[in-house]
Design brief:
Layout (H helix, E strand, L loop, with lengths): L5 H7 L25 H9 L14 H14 L3 E5 L2 H10 L7 E5 L4 H10 L6 E5 L4 H7 L4 E7 L11 H10 L3 E5 L4 H4 L9 E5 L13 E5 L1 H15 L5 H32 L5 E5 L9 H8 L6 E6 L2 H11 L4 E2 L9 E3 L11 H6 L6 E5 L5 H14 L1
Parallel strand pairs: 2-3, 2-4, 4-5, 5-6, 10-11
Antiparallel strand pairs: 1-7, 6-7, 8-9, 9-12, 11-12
The structure holds pyridoxal-5'-phosphate.
Length: about 400
Amino acid sequence: MSDWKARTTLVHGGTRRSQYNEVSEAIFLTQGFVYETAEQAEARFIQSGDDEFIYARYGNPTVAMFEERIALLEGTEDAFATASGMAAVNGALVSMLKAGDHVVAARALFGSCLYILEDILCRFGVEVTLVDGTDLDQWRAAVRGDTAAVFFESMSNPTLEVIDIAAVADIAHAVGATVVVDNVFSTPVFSDAIAQGADVVVYSATKHIDGQGRALGGVILGTRDFIRGTVEPYMKHTGGSMSPFTAWIMLKGLETIDLRVRAQAESALKIAQDFEGHEKLARMIYPGLKAHAQNDLVQRQLGGKGGTVVAFDLAGGQAAAFRFLNALEVAVISNNLGDAKSIATHPATTTHQRLPEAQKAALGITPGLVRFSVGLEDVGDLVADLTRALEAS
Ligand SMILES: *Cc1c(COP(=O)(O)O)cnc(C)c1O
């Protein structure tokens, strides 16, 4: 099993069959488990074995299958499945931090991640320093002897800046800090974050792992010690566990994720190449383009794959961006990403609305910026849709 390639692991890894030997993974939609005797119940609360469960908030066979399969793909010893991507980010950070600790994080973060860092952690005496994640000198200047963790999105939302995992990990490890990477935009398919130095990887499974817009979920990946010793006690007692039904959706999502994400990335590259330099655009951002400022890093870190999201910056500002969005006939206006359906988002007025104007400007979230998550539709239809929408803008 250890020498299976990713595609095989994604179909078979972690499978646990019941006494019925079902082909498709069973959904164990149960909150609890019956003990044969009082002695067995007592023993299980002292120490439960690999195939022994107590309560769904602590663990469940369907959830365990998902955890094992995604851990095999990511190359970590273990994983803990969570109710959402934010439960994963919160669980990874809060379970390990304590008052007096220092955290360094990249500034270009998903809004809810910023909320955890800026509004929650500091209330409990954790000091947070934000840096420009692409500037290694800022990381070097920010880490200290008491830095317990560094945190960043390996590819930022929505402007698709790429952060050098190996270089930041070297800087963090020199002071003994744990490297926590939110890897959503890099995707589990193209990620090699653990080999590159990350200690902990988190995903919102809501994105590419489900990939069909059905359920919220998340996962924290790391060493067995970290997952079972640090994360599990925090998550199981605070209620952020994944439901068995969600785990089944995510488990089945993993069977097809490699095919889906590769197809989406291929379409994203074609779209980026076709519209690069278009007269209606001030900028066309896609990490897989040779012209992307960090394309060298994309080659090293992601095997040249730029992911499944592109960003268009319309020269005509917000009015042009709205005309563009309203003219789309195939892609939908929404705010998820990694979905089978192409999804267009106007970050400045939706996902990043809360940010002050100066911060939006600093992060490159201009009034004309549209994030476009490339779906599984025929790429010719998508190009035609985008061509028409750009004309209308
Ligand atoms: C969506 C997202 C999250 C949050 O995930 P939810 O499943 O919505 O809770 C965190 N980080 C990144 C980079 C995301 O894209």
